[in-house]
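Much of our argument rests on the idea that a fold can be written as discrete symbols. The amino acid sequence and the backbone structure tokens for this protein are reproduced below:

___
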Amino acid sequence: MPTAMITGASAGLGAEFARQLASRGADLVLVARTLSALEALAEELRDRHGVLIEVLPADLSVAEDIMAVADRIAQEQHPIDLLVNNAGFGLPLHFADNDIDEEVRHLRIHVEAPMRLMHAALRAMRGRGGRIINVASVAGFISRSTYSACKQWLIGFSRWANAEYSRDGVSVMALCPGFTHTSFHERMGLAPGAEGIPAFAWLNAEHVVRVGLRDAARGRAVSVPSLRYKAAVVLTKVLPSSITAGAARRGRV
């Protein structure tokens, strides 16, 4: 059976990826900071689907933990067929007012960790095939503080890597949802109606993951799992930056 590694697997989109992949018969390697949450999810999925599950507690803002996860990806005897880079967190949009050490931690989790894990995965997958899904955001199509900049990097790198490594049987895709009902937004105090975000702008995590897995299977480089957010991405290319910058001050996707 295929084996998928998911970072940030204890909640939100990560947990939804785990549930959908387990329901399809995939074995899992679950990565997150909180061991108890990982073990609870692993027990649920083992009981429900009978799949093999490893838990790997790791803080991807810590260099040693990143390397431990990369070493697991490199294991030849238990290969990873699908890597889902999902771990992340949000910060307030006012960069100059944020703690710079938190900003550096944010950069490490959103850029350095996925880069190192992709490097390990590509080296392991070349020739035998595999898939990488990088959970990015529609925020990556606009200019808005460091979160947007991180997601822009992830989208751009995924586009290049998908073209470059498709000849080796490896696909790389950036999944770009908008506001989604998960604990990610709950931790920032966001909900439908908050900060001027209308209820219709919110997506369902199950839908986001289902579309993401489908588009990854099709070899796409970028997946935007909603017609309304696809339209928003198109608008970012034609509207003046003053308008998109104003809209970007609302919420955090």
